[in-house]
Write a structure and sequence with these properties.
The chain is mainly alpha-helical. It folds into two domains: 1-171, MFS general substrate transporter like domains (Growth Hormone, Chain: A), CATH 1.20.1250.20; 174-230. The protein is 76% helix and 0% strand. The chain is built from nine helices and no strands. The protein has helices spanning 2-8, 17-38, 44-68, 74-102, 108-130, 139-159, 175-180, 183-199, 205-230. Helix 3 (44-68) packs antiparallel against helix 4 (74-102) and helix 8 (183-199) packs antiparallel against helix 9. It starts with a helix and ends with a helix.
Length: 231
């Protein structure tokens, strides 16, 4: 929705319509370059969240330029919209890789089809959001489409925090693998914290360490069974 909506909203920005649309198309290239450089270095999750929040934050910031800046500063509104489009284009490219790696193999094609269905639904809604300025007159009406697009992008970026990172991780093959996907690293970090705590436990360090090691062995056996299932 944000990706298509920002392009359709280029006619509501100050300046020449054709120049604005051309700039919207050019910043997409920058977004794709960011994906190429960062996907295998930063990771899918962090890069996706960063693009959504920065792009959405730029769109939300247009409310200040529309309401409080004079016409000589309208170019700032265009720059913020371009930053939003760059972030949306990068996030749109990342999500196809990220979502495919999150879904288990047995349902990957079906779930990718469902996500594309909702994406197309967002694309159908975006023209109406871009025309919200016709429903609400005044300066706020001009900023309303970008506010909606920005709030949607920021909300999506925040919700992605609950998802696991998939970079250099074995992909889930079954539903059980998908449910457990991302939990192993959290349990290992918790185990390291427990070991660190037992070193400072002056009362029963040996007993505490034995309990922690028992939990860790159980964790390893579970992860090995998952690995065998994947193989």
């Amino acid at each position: 929705m944000v990706y298509y909506g920002l392009s359709l909203n280029s006619g509501n920005l100050a300046g020449n319509l054709y120049v604005n649309f051309e700039l919207m198309s050019l910043v997409e290239i920058m977004g794709y370059v960011i994906c190429l450089l960062g996907l295998n270095r930063v990771g899918r999750k962090l890069l996706h969240i960063t693009c959504l929040i920065i792009g959405g934050g730029a769109c939300l910031s247009t409310i200040f330029t529309v309401l409080y800046a004079d016409k000589s500063l309208e170019w700032i509104n265009i720059v913020l919209a371009l930053v939003g489009k760059c972030g949306a284009a990068a996030a749109f490219a990342i999500i196809y890789i990220y979502s495919a790696e999150l879904f288990p193999t047995v349902l990957r094609n079906s779930l990718m089809g469902v996500t594309c269905l909702f994406a197309r639904a967002g694309g159908m809604i975006s023209p109406y959001i871009a025309d919200l300025d016709k429903l609400l007159t005044g300066q706020l009406g001009k900023a309303l489409p970008l506010i909606v697009f920005g709030a949607t992008a920021v909300a999506g970026g925040i919700m992605c925090f609950i998802l696991p990172e998939t970079l250099n991780k074995p992909l889930p093959e079954t539903l059980e693998n998908a449910v457990d996907f991302g939990r192993a690293s959290k349990r290992l970090r918790r185990h390291a914290q427990d070991v660190n705590d037992c070193e400072h436990n002056e009362d029963k360090p040996l007993q505490h360490l034995t309990e922690v090691n028992g939990d860790f062995k159980s964790l390893l056996s579970n992860d090995q069974s998952v690995a065998k299932t994947i193989v």
